Structure formats: structure tokens, C-alpha cells
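thought: fold this chain, then report.
action: predict
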Amino acid sequence: MPIEKNIIIPARPHALKTGDLLCRLLLLALVSLTLTPGATDASSNPYATPLAHSESPFESQRQLYLQAIEAYDKGHYRQFERISTGLHDYPLYPYLVYKSYRRQLNQLDNSQIGRFLQDYDGTVVSEWLRKKLIQHYAKQKQWHDLIDIYRPNSGVSAECRYLGALIHTGQTHLALPRIKNLWLSPISRPKECDPVFKLWEDAGQKSTALVWKRFKLAIHDGNRKLARYLVRSLSPSDATIAQKWLKLHHKPDSYEPDSIKALKHAEQSSIMLNWLSRLASRDIDKAISYYHSLQNYPFSNDQRAQLVRRIGLSLARKHLPDAGIWLDRVPREYYDRQVREWRIRTAIRQGDWSHVISSIDRLSPAEQSQHRWQFWWAYANEEVGNTPDALGIYQYLATQRSYYGFLAADRIGSNYNFEDRPINPSQQQLQFIRQQPETIRAREFYLMDQQLPARREWQRLLSRLDAEQKLAASKLAQLWGWHDRAIISMGQTRYRDDIELRFPLHHANKVHNWSSQHNIDPAWTYAIIRRESAFIPDARSSVGAMGLMQLMPATARSMARHMKIRYAGQKTLLKSNTNIRLGTGYLERMLERLNLQVLATAAYNAGPHRVEDWLPESRTMEALRWIETIPFTETREYVSNVLAYIAIYEHRMKRKVTRLSSRMLPIPAREPELATDETPPETRHSVEIIQTAKDKSS
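observation:
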């Protein structure tokens, strides 16, 4: 459904292509949601309050909807159908129809299916029903019906079933090339693809070369499970080589080059390359020694360049002295972003400021424009005595509300810039967003505290909006108190200057209470929540972290036991109060162990053992240099973002803002007994130096 651009007048009901039924629903909703002109805050907008159920025009229908769902879940289908009959005008009625249809797919005729898909075209439920029908038609071998109903972007399982239907209807020539591309993946495909892969194999399309190609994709992606599965498709002699490769990949430090040279196979050099690359991350000294012993080995130029790159990056991430030498050996055509950036970071870690300047000068204009490298170019110039050039960059960066902007402000002693320019969409723009079917459905789910379906509807809404409309949507979500959707919606635009919207003071009582009890700065707690979950209460990460402060279940159990809190499984972590309580407790534990806020923040993300491994070896280091050279990209960005967010939250809480330079105390050495008594020059503050330059320039 197209969305009207440059919203001036709300779209007329008949322009909404979602069927007559939804048009009637929208007319009802528009009457109910009409706003007083000029009202943009919650106090003057009754529909802006997230839990004001009694003020919603759908309160009675909402209760009936919940009763219908309860009846369905209990298997009381007659009661479900009876309640559903009275909800034709309720925004969530399509979900009830979907449930009814899903239960009786065998009994649906084409007219019912067509009418549903047409009336609710583009909605979440229409996609759900389409996928269910594709599954049903495949099971019933109704191939022509499956082909008719299939749409692209319905998921891998649906695509596999569709390609199988093409084969079964004599359209093999259309299916085979697409099946090959689906199969040739470093990840395992769903079991629904097995039948079509078997048809493809039976057609003689699965060659040994393709199996080796996918095996190598899986190996390089670290998917040993898939690689082991693919061994079955190889001949006995090839399978022996592949199994040896798997052992080398799993335990590279248990083998030597001669064991690979003994493998008489076309893939020998690829195996040697993969083994040595893996060894570089496990035992870099042994990898370098073997590399030198293999100078006469018949690596291709590409393979040798890959090895030099891998060894150089491994040395750089381990902060070893020869990193710069190896990175400089990487041929220019292989000098990718990682190599360029780690060459700069190595020079930063080693205090080689002239090399920092020359390396940044060699970046592309787009890379040089990044605040990160502008700051470090200025910092390096300051270190070599070129303070006028440094001053100009610092003065520009200090106008930015960011980590590097705050660092630059610290260098010249200027105030932080907290420019706040709240977005102010017109009443027409807000009303246009309110009247969209997805908005109305998302609102209903939100009022029932059904976060996931509410987010699905909201995401569907955002997918149809332009940048200006997304800003209006973010403001509407803020008015409702739906802070995570406000943040996410604005995040899909380039606008960043509505500080109150982007950094809400949500869960204030819980944050202040538990932060106080665990001796944690509440601004720090807020910054962690903002970075971890953006206030999504039921957030779940790909690795299993959960809730506002993204705690791993094992960590939560350990903290609950330590704090004598009843822990009733993972659902406990989705309760905001418990999550914040456990999260601030864990943050306190990290601070007690590592003593510094910077280190505790890094440990919250990457774990304390890694952070202790990353400490400088023999002497203290300036915190900003340590942060910039954290080996993990995620943790490096995490720490810098959290530090900037702390300052922003102090500003939001109307507190005196603590400068980052005061929070970022020098990082202690891992082995202090080896440290010298010399105070490293990088620990000094440079306000006086820059101020002198300012005086001279003026």
C-alpha cells in the first residue's frame, strides 16, 4: 500500500487498499482518535497514554478478543467462533480469521483464501496464511495451487517448496539453477529443503566440485557441523582428505606442515592456508615460524597475501610489537579496511604518532571524514607539536554530540554540546500515522502488553514510510510511552538531535533504586540499558542475552544466587525490575573486580577475563588509547558509546556533567612489577597546551 508523501491531509479511507472491512475500521478509528489542534503532548492527547485502557475506543472489544484467544488456546473452538463473530469491526479481527483458517485449511475454498489474501494484502497475517498454505499444498501435493499462491521473499522453506512444485509440474529448467544457489551456502538449510535437494541431486546436478566448494564455504564460516555432513557426499578418498582438514581446523596447534604436505590432493594448498590462518589465532609465534619455513611452498600470490594479512591482523589484535611490520607487508591490493584501520591502531598503541598521521592521510576521503580518524589525526598532530592544526579539528569536533566530540572538547577545555532539537510533526502528520491500519493494530497489541506482535505491526508500518513520516512515527511512539519503538523509528532516519526521545528516563524509580543499592551511578545504568536493549523489555540477543540489561541466563542465575534472589528461569529476566536489579548487581561486581569504570564497562560486554588479557603488558596507558585498540569491534564501539551516553544521561538528569577525561582514568598494566617508574607522557591532559595554541592563534 503506497504511503502519501509530504503529509498534509490524512489519506481518504477509500485510498487504503486493504479491503472494505478495514476501511470501515479506519473510519471508526479516525473518529475515535481525532486530536485537539495543537496538542502534541500526553497531557492533551488521551490516546498518547500507553496504559489508559478505559480511554481507548476499543476497550470492550479488546476484552472480547482476549476471551476469544483464551478459548482458542483451550480448544474451545465453538466459543472462539461465537466471540469472533461479534468482532468484525475490531482492528485485530484479521488475527482471529487467520486462527480460524489455520485450523481448517482442508476445508477452505479458493474464494475464501483469495478474499482473505486480497483484503489483508501486505499484512502480517496474510503472510502467515500464505506460508501455512504453501506448507499444506506441498504436503497434499497440490503443486499448481502452491505455485499460484507463492510470492518471493517468503522465506527459504517456502522457496524450497516452490522450487519442488516447479519440478513436479515439468518446469525443471526454471528450478535447477535456483536450487544450486540455495544449496551452495555455508549454513545448513531447513529440512523442508531436503526433498528438493534430492530431486536436484537425482537430476545429476550435485557434482564433487560443488560439494568441495560448499565444504570450503562451511569451513571458512566455522560451520564444522555442516562440513562433517558434507563429507558423506564425497568419495572415500576425498572423504579421508576432508576429515583430515576438519581435524586440522579444529586443533591447528596439534599439527605440523609436513602432515599437510603428505596429503596428495588438489586442495592441499587450500588446507595449508586454512590451517596456518587458524594457527595464527591460536599460537602466533608458531604460525610465524611455520610461515618462514614454508617460503618455498607453492602458495599462490593470493594465498600468500592472505596469510600475511592474517598474521598481521592477529599480531595487531594481540598488541604485539611486530604488528606494524607485518601489516606493512600486505600488498596494497589486499589492503582492506581492517588492515588500514589496524595499522593506525597499532601506531596509536605504540605511540608512533608520525605513522598515525601518515596512515590517516592515506585513507579515502570518506574514511578521513569519520570523527574517529579526525580526532586521532588531531591528537597525533598535537603529540608531534603541530598544535594549530590539531586545534582546528578539535574545535570542529567539539561541536558534535558524540564520544569523539566529547573527547575533543576535553582536549581544548570547552563545554560539551548537548544541542536538543525535538522533532515537532504537525497534527496532520501525526494523525496520518495514527490512522494507518498497522498503527492501530500495533497500539492494540501494545495495550495488551503483547510486545512481539506489536513490534511486528510497527515494523511493517515503518517499511512503508519515508524519512519524514518515520520521524512522525517516532514522536507518536514517544507520546505513547513506547520508548523502544521511538528510538528504533528515529534510528531509521538520519536525524539524531531529539535527545529526550533518543535517551528516555524510563523506569526511573527502578534505575535509581537499584543503582543506589549497588553503588552504581544511575547515569551509567541508563547508558548500559540504552546501549544493550534500547529499552526493549523482552530483548533477546543472538547469543541468548535477555532483557533490558541483556544478561546471559547463566550470569543471571549466578548473580541471583549471590544476591539471594529467587530465580524462576529465563522468564525472570524479562521482568524489568529483576533485570535491572541483577544487571546493576553484576555491574557492581565488575567494578569491584576491575576498579575502573572503563574496564567494568568493557567487562560487562566481553567478560572480565578478556578485559584482563587486554590490559597493557608493562606500563599504564591512557584510557582513550586503550579503548581505541580493544581487539573486538563490538566491545570497542560499546565502551565508547556507553561513555558518551553517560554524559548525555547526566545532562538529561540535570546533573553536572562529569567530563570523560575524569572518568577515563589511566589503564593499569597487567604485570605492574615490570612497569617503570617513568610517568608516561600520554597520561597528561592537554588543555593547557591547546589553550596556549589558542592564545597564540588569536
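thought: worth noting. The mean pLDDT is 89.
final: C-alpha cells above.
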